[in-house]
Amino acid sequence: MKKENTAKILMAVAMFVFGTLAPFVRNIEVGSGELALYRAVLAAVLVGGFLLITKQRLSLLSIKKEFLLLLLSGVAMGINWILLFEAYKYTTVSVATLSYYFAPVIVMAVCPIIFKEKLTAKQIVCFVMATVGLVLITGTAGGGSSDLLGIFFGLGAAMFYATVMLLNKFIKGIAGLHRTFIQFLAAVIVLVPYVLLTSGFTLGSLSGIGWTNLLIVGLVHTGVTYCMYFSSLKELPGQKVAILSYIDPLVAVFVSVIWLSEAMTLPQIIGGVLILGFTLISELPLDKKK
Questions:
Q1: How far, in Å, CA of 98 to CA of 77, rounded?
Q2: Is 236 helix (H, G, I), strand (E, B) or coil?
Q3: In whole angstroms, what is the distance from residue 153 CA to residue 181 CA?
Q4: Quick one: how far is CA 257 from the chain centroid?
Q5: How many CB atoms lie within 10 A of CB 28?
Q6: Percent of the chain scored above 90 by pLDDT?
Q7: Which residues are CB-neighbours of 18 under 8 A, at least 6 positions away?
Q8: Largest Cα span, the chain
Q9: Which residue of 134, 194, 214, 288 shows the fewest CB atoms closer than 10 Å?
Q10: For residue 288, what pLDDT is reported?
Q11: Mean pLDDT of all residues in the chain?
């Protein structure tokens, strides 16, 4: 029980930190692709150090067997970050986050096709209601084309996050933190040529505030939180993980409204409640005893 309580605290703290990402991203004066690269590099260094200190060895044979899937998931992770950072530029943090959290709904819709799983009546209702929530957010975007572009980037990020989730279902031989470490490395491999061909490297132009925020995003929001997340994941049942995961978007919305003073319309609030509420309901069992 003590282990589980500690795991709950670690998971809750990790989700809280994830939810505060956007304001730090906005204070880093580099392009989204370059920022995604630096985030992956810093996180890989920290997580790699953690694995080394805790003597958690990587299985080269397992990596070889799963290499293609790990590479593809790393690519999807990098693109997911780029699109999410772009979403923060064009719309409010709350709208970008709620659009991004449509990812589990995408997974729910795709799983029956890929894994031949049968959609239950509950899942169908949840999918429809979460989609209604997305329509409410999209249809009431107050910033015109800029807001819609931000929502588009948020949904693009959701699609690639869903891709990472789906690819991870096929990766069987490598545990969570090891898998994420390799995905960070894969993201670095892909993002280096992308940055060279697009914005180039502009670290020299970063201000002191930019450097500070970059280190916080790479080391704290990614490296430390991933270590906390995966350390706690193995100690918690799936339903508790699902519930605690919703701390992230809720904190992000509060950060948007209270910290950044970004307004939310009533339809957007209702849409957010529908997306988060019905996505959570879809992950919880109907049987109260469970």
A1: 18
A2: coil
A3: 25
A4: 20
A5: 25
A6: 54
A7: 221, 225, 248, 251
A8: 58
A9: 288
A10: 52
A11: 88
How far, in Å, CA of 235 to CA of 248, rounded? Answer: 19
Instruction: Express each pLDDT in 26-73 by its tens digit.
Output: 999 999 999 999 999 999 999 999 889 988 888 788 888 888 998 999
136 by Cβ neighbours in 10 Å (0-12 / 13-18 / 19+) ranks as buried
Residue with tokens 């979460």: 130
How many angstroms separate the Cα of 156 from the Cα of each of 25, 76, 275?
A: 18, 11, 16
Kindly state the tokens that stand for 135. Answer: 């329509």
Amino acid at position 243, single letter: I
Stretch 7-19: mean pLDDT: 93
DSSP string across 18-39: HHTHHHHHHT--S-HHHHHHHH
Query: Would you say 134 and 275 are in contact if contact means Cβ atoms under 8 Å apart?
Result: yes
Q: How far apart are CA 159 and CA 288, in angstroms?
A: 32
pLDDT at 184 exceeding the cut of 80: yes
pLDDT band at 169 (very low <50, low <70, confident <90, very high): confident
* pLDDT at position 5: 85
Sign (positive/negative) of CA torsion 76, 79, 85, 91?
negative
User: In this predicted structure, what is the pLDDT of residue 4?
Assistant: 82
- CA distances to 2, 84, 285 from 87, rounded to whole Å, are 40, 5, 33
d(CA 198, CA 155): 22
